[in-house]
Amino acid sequence: MNLWFIPGLILLGLAPIAPSKDFSAETQWKLLGSTLRILDSKRDPVATGVIVGRKWNLQEGPVKTYYVLTAFHIFREAPNRIVLLAQWFPRKIFPIARFEDFHCYIRVKDESADLALLEFKSTEDLPVAKLAKFEDYDVRADRERYPVLSIGCSLGKSPSCVADETLGKKLVMKSRSKENPENYPVAFFWEARKTSVKGRSGGPLFDSSERLIGISTAVQGGKSYYSHLDEINSFLKKNDFGWLLEK
């Protein structure tokens, strides 16, 4: 694609990348490569996911196993082995893009942190997002405002980027109910300035070092919330997927 054509697409609202001084067009294209659109059994788009790991076994030849991080609430009523469909857009051609279909299975999920890990197999050599580890992350980010990039499938369309800013780390409390008369802590989430839209649930949140630090989960009061990297790290480690953090 000619470079002069990209700014024109941005102005027309056709390109999946966002104007940003913190995330170059090249970086955004790179991060888009690990993002998937998730569909249900009727092929209706329902959410977004991001590839966070790959495993290859010599006995399986060219077939690789991929792991996708997304939001739990999408599968609240689903059995653990539900078959889903994920679409990957590998080319920088918008709005027309070639895509591949992959049948996914839910491996593990966590309601409190609103996280789920999917698995699928493919012979494709797919991009993998780099996960942030809490021991390597600057704790000041929990209190200060930092530029971030969210990626998601707005209204079920192909993935697109939104440049945003974190407003800090928040402890979300579960509301009172007949079963639980008292509020109690659930999990930590990033609060971000811009409002997300339907279809972006499960989409990744990246920092300026191209590390995945959150997963889109909810919107409240005009702001977006993302599962915090602490919760992602804990979720993977307690379910024996901590090795995904070491790649």
From TrEMBL:
Domain of life according to the entry: Bacteria
Pfam family for this entry, one: Trypsin_2
InterPro entries: Peptidase_S1_PA, Peptidase_S1_PA_chymotrypsin
Span of the signal peptide: none
Protein name (Swiss-Prot/TrEMBL): Trypsin-like peptidase domain-containing protein
Organism from which the protein derives: Telmatocola sphagniphila
